[in-house]
Amino acid sequence: MEVIVIMTYIDRQEKQVSNLLSAVIFFGIICAMLASSGCGGVEEQTGQKRISDEEFLSPSIEYSPKRYLCRKTEMPVVIDGKIDDGPWMEPWVEWSHYFVNITGEEKPAPRFRTRAKMMWDDDYFYIAAYMIENSVWASVTERDGQIYQDNDLEIFIDPDGDSHEYFEIGINAYGTVRDVFLVKPYRDGGPAIASWDIKGLKSAVSVDGTINDPENQDRGWTVEIAIPWEVLGESAHKKVPPDEGDIWAINISRGEYDVKIEDGIYVKATDPETGRPEPEYLSVWSQQGIANMHYPEMWGLVKFSNMTRFIGADSFKPGPDEQARWLLRRIYYREREHFLRYGAYTEDLSRLGIERTDIFSYIWPPVILVTAYDFEACMSTEDSRTRLVIVSDGRLTLYEQ
């Protein structure tokens, strides 16, 4: 901590300071020097008393989203669960990276491979996935049922990347769909609106094998989904279909359980000590750094392109705004934890463990304002044309002039 003494200009004829005032100033400087040297704990320095050792869960990795160039198609798309025909076979509709462990690429790789494709036209956003699996099974048949209790594929879409008002769509090998709208992530209070349905949604599944038949060796299953832009536009806060170059936050996850065969049918494998089902394996297109899909800020990025002729003719590289967003998100994590531990937010970056980070075109430091129960952190560009603001419920908003 640096001790900064601000000298106010005083007319020389009136510059008379009493011995008492001088002593007070001297004592204040000594106290500040002792505090900066580490004498006295955080509580003594700030007056804030620790009330808890609780942690606010945050990703264990740095932000490193996967990127996908989603190109437009002018060919008709038939939703039948098969993705080895039609526009899916065009070379510019590329496969994603293979899915990785949800907590990070350095963790053990998923047992079975999964990858996805995406494309769009004027009416729909299309997503397809192929999942290798040697025991294809499902149990839930009711719309909006708990398909996450089955092996399933789940798609998450946050059009404006603010981490609020996002869509979740899940599907199992029966083709049963569960679609949910989340006002906020669960960590920020939710809620999840399970009664919400995507009108006009098209989906289909194709099984390479026979579902729920342990006597046959399966090879996998494919999913094909068409999501109407009209529905996505209800909470996108941006134009749909997207403009050329628009970027959305999207991730795709695959849930998978161990199974065993009992009385000729598949059942979930259980822990011999507890009798409960073994934990679900989660793999994702873009690593989350935490075993929780409801951290939208960690999702991959999909850039929409009108290019339909050449692979790699357009590009998708990170910009400085991504760094600024991640810095604000780190402030959010630390502020939430600070509030849990001390019952208050703080404007002090050092208390949050945030070190200087120079980001091209952005002003350092970010401006933090706090009240008794809220905070706001803002980063602005040097030309003042762009501001990124994050608040205590995690919503991150872009303001442009």
What keywords describe this structure?
single chain; 401 residues; alpha+beta; Immunoglobulin-like; 2 domains; 4-stranded antiparallel beta sheet
- The helicity comes to 10-25%
Q: Provide a count of the helices.
A: 4
Instruction: Give the CA-based shape.
Output: globular
Q: Write down the CATH topology of the largest domain.
A: Immunoglobulin-like
Cα distance spanning the termini? 37 Å
Average pLDDT, to the nearest integer?
Answer: 88
> How many DSSP E strands?
19
Summarize the model shown.
This protein is α+β, with helices and mostly antiparallel strands and 401 residues long.
Walkthrough of the structure:
The protein has 401 residues and is of the alpha+beta class. It folds into two domains: 67-305, Sandwich (Immunoglobulin-like), CATH 2.60.40; 320-400. Helices cover 12% and strands 28% of the residues. It has four helices and 19 strands. The protein has helices spanning 19-36, 42-46, 229-232, 320-342; strands at 67-72, 100-101, 114-120, 124-132, 152-158, 166-172, 177-182, 192-193, 202-208, 220-228, 247-256, 259-262, 265-268, 281-284, 300-305, 367-370, 375-380, 386-391, 396-400. The strands form three sheets. Strands 1, 2, 3, 4, 5, 6, 7, 8, 9, 10, 11, 14 and 15 form a 13-stranded mixed β-sheet that branches. A four-stranded antiparallel β-sheet has the order 16-17-18-19, with helices on one face. A two-stranded antiparallel sheet has the order 12-13. Strand 17 (375-380) and strand 18 form a beta hairpin.
